[in-house]
Amino acid sequence: xxxxxxxxxxxxxxxSDNCKCFFCDGGLRNWEAGxxxxxxxxxxxxxCGFLKMCKGEDYIQSIQDRLAEVWCLDCLAE
Length: 78
Ligand SMILES: [Zn+2]
Prior knowledge:
single chain, 78 residues, mainly alpha, two-stranded antiparallel sheet, 2 strands, 65% helix, 5% strand, globular, binds zinc ion
């Protein structure tokens, strides 16, 4: 997948866990093995044009919805 390849490429260049999207310049930190670049990007930078173009609004919305659920559970726990 193109997007994953770009992140891996930046990773190889030595930015380690501090990756940047070439399109929207959105930085992703604290990168962990197994993290899905698309998912993380949809979470933090839902307005990215490249993300919208490749994954679509529905995908971004589903990530945002899931995130809202997590936050809700956090609220209930407190
Ligand atoms: Zn982006």
